[in-house]
Amino acid sequence: GNSVTQMEGPVTLSEEAFLTINCTYTATGYPSLFWYVQYPGEGLQLLLKATKADDKGSNKGFEATYRKETTSFHLEKGSVQVSDSAVYFCALMRWNSGGYQKVTFGTGTKLQVIP
Amino acid sequence: ETGVTQTPRHLVMGMTNKKSLKCEQHLGHNAMYWYKQSAKKPLELMFVYSLEERVENNSVPSRFSPECPNSSHLFLHLHTLQPEDSALYLCASSQEGAQAEKLFFGSGTQLSVL
Is B2's Cβ below 8 Å from some Cβ in A? Predict the structure, then answer.
């Protein structure tokens, strides 16, 4: 079956530090890949996505590249801010034969940015 | 504001109680989902409704009973829960079809079973 593995947190960084959160996946075929973010007390929001190999998703200074050869989709940001403190979820999506999205999530990585 | 509203935000219940979680989406989507979020575990997909029909039930115990009366509303009825059912329950919706690209989540109901 499909699965997503992401690094365990929490990750604690100082403001303006470089961020990498690793994510690898197992899936048949060609899934779409996503990063969702969950701020305290809120639900998940889509941060960025990539739908095919070598695509780069980007949003709010975050980037991730779909690497089929290494089955990875690592999240990076060059300079984090305190407001980036949240839980980050890597996910993959395959279309189910029933015609709906089948999304598999990782365990989430908590990021804490200190001033 | 994501367009998906969940109530209540917090719920404490005893093991013999019966309660319901409510989800409402104002996005015109035709698929709705219940997820369970527990600490240090991946989000668990519980149920999927597409066009108001249940299309997936991921081996969820019968003490959880979903209901989708129309495409905008989704309920999760709870009865005789166990302490290990304490978790954040998230509702999500999406528009199925070629243009679908993401899930829209509510803020969740934090459930504590005593």
Answer: yes
Compute the Cα dihedral for B43, B36, A32, A89 and give only its sign.
negative
Of A34-48, B19-33, B57-71, B99-113, where does mean pLDDT reach its minimum?
B99-113
Q: Does B4 touch chain A (CB under 8 A)?
A: yes
**B99 pLDDT higher than 60:** no
Smallest CA-to-CA distance from B29 within B114, B87, B102 is with: B102
Q: Among B53, B52, B50, which Cα is nearest to B97's?
A: B50
The verdict on a CB contact (< 8 Å) between B50 and A107 is no
Average pLDDT over residues A28-46: 91
Residues in contact with B98: Cβ distance below 8 Å, sequence separation at least 6, in sequence order: none
Amino acid of residue B84: E
Give the nearest chain A residue to B2 (CA atoms).
A45
In angstroms, the CA A77 to CA A32 distance is: 21
Which pLDDT does position B90 carry in this prediction? Answer: 96
> What three-state secondary structure class fits B66?
strand
Smallest CA–CA separation between A69 and chain B, in Å?
Answer: 23
In chain A, residues with a C-beta closer than 8 Å to the C-beta of B102 are: 34, 46, 49
Contact status, residue A90 vs residue A4, Cβ threshold 8 Å: yes
